[in-house]
Amino acid sequence: MTLLSQWTPASPFRFALLLDFLSRFAHPTLDAVQANAYWRILRDGQTLALVLVHETSADPGSTRLQAEVMASSGSVDPAVILSGLRTVLPPTTDDDAFFAHARQYEALWQVVEPLVGMPTLRSASLFESLMQAIIEQQISWVAAQRAQRWLVEWAGNRLDYDGRAYYAFPTPAQLAAATIDDLKPTRITFKRMALLIDLSAQITSGAFDLEALLQLPHPEAYRELLRHKGIGHWTAAVALNRACGYYDIHHNDVALQAATNRYFYGAAGRISPEQVIATYSRYTPYAGVAAHYTLLRWVFDQYPQSSASGLTVMI
Fold first, then answer.
1. Which of the 8 DSSP states describes residue 279?
2. How far apart are CA 149 and CA 180, in angstroms?
3. Phi, psi at residue 37, to the nearest 5°?
4. How far is 198 from 183, CA to CA, in rounded Å?
5. Any idea what DSSP says for residue 125?
6. ∠ CA(115), CA(4), CA(211), 5° rounding?
């Protein structure tokens, strides 16, 4: 075990709420909850390190967290692993301005208030978030999780600790070398399998410098993603949401349509995409953040721990 860091996040910071959220994934892939702690494999080049984050003090006024490397596939630079951890799990939340804005609207605050203090969680890379978003196109959330779980197991970027396997996401080179037959067990469409392979091949060859998009202003990165066939508005928005917290463009899918109808109109079923846009435009300049928190609340209310049901999402 190697101690990476200890820190006291600015209050409010409810680490247990993040663990509760992750426990509602029917087929966890990369972000694992075990023994009241968060576990994640991070990379130092080709070397894998299994990181554990847990609370050493759960005092609501001064939550203290500790991160440790529990296992690795070779020698790693702790500074590189800590940087990766701070990408995936930023040490503080920065939504105070949004919360102050949300308090002005009773309907929105009723949705958001139970989530105040929930830690931010990000993808380790734009590649990871984009590939996962492509898998999620037009299938249920749970079916997408199942496909993602299969994919990380297939790639085999794995560390074992205390009788349990933990996985890192496939590399672009691994997916570029895959065939349609390899990916059939994901049960996504052949078109999407081909898209995963093609984009990975472009990234591996250097024809598509995907991670460089994170250095661009977010609206420009969004437009650049849309230039690639197979990446529509929903996929680009989801990928940037998860990789860098860019919520100015929210993904108007059926889960958001159903959640908005429940929380803002007190009804079951879905409302139209146009009504979703009209609903969140009230909360400008935080429309996208409001939609994001609405979907987080939906997960808590819709999916019990180890849930096995889902809604369809759209490209």
1. H
2. 17
3. -145, 165
4. 13
5. -
6. 70
CA distance readout (Å), 236 to 138, 144, 203, 246, 258? 14, 17, 16, 10, 21
Convert the pLDDT of each residue in 162-217 to its tens digit.
Answer: 999 999 999 999 999 999 999 999 999 999 999 999 999 999 999 999 999 999 99
**At 143, which amino acid appears?**
A
3-class secondary-structure state, position 158:
strand
CA–CA gap between residue 9 and residue 12 (Å, rounded): 8
| N-term to C-term CA, the chain | 42
Residues 6+ apart with CB under 8 A from 293: 98, 102, 111, 112, 115
Longest CA–CA span in the chain (Å) reads 55
* CA neighbor of 117 nearest in space, from 99, 102, 105: 99
Q: 35-72 burial string, b = 16+ CB within 10 Å, else e?
A: eebbbbbbbbeeebbbbbbbbeeeeeeebebbbbbbbb
- Confirm whether 2-90 and 126-244 share one CATH topology: no
Confidence tier at 313 by pLDDT (50, 70, 90) = very low
Burial bucket for residue 218 (CB in 10 Å: 0-12, 13-18, 19+): middle
pTM exceeds 0.85, yes or no: yes
d(CA 124, CA 169): 9
Q: How far apart are CA 275 and CA 266, in angstroms?
A: 14
Among 38, 20, 83, CA closest to 306: 20
Domain boundaries, the chain: 2-90, 126-244
The values of phi and psi at residue 9, to 5°, are: -65, 150
Bridge partner residues of 140 (DSSP) = 312
We find that the CATH architecture of domain 2-90 is 2-Layer Sandwich (3.30)
Tokens matching residue 274: 């146009």
Kindly report, residue by residue over 126-136, the tens digit of the pLDDT: 999 999 999 99
CATH topology of domain 126-244: Endonuclease III; domain 1 (1.10.340)
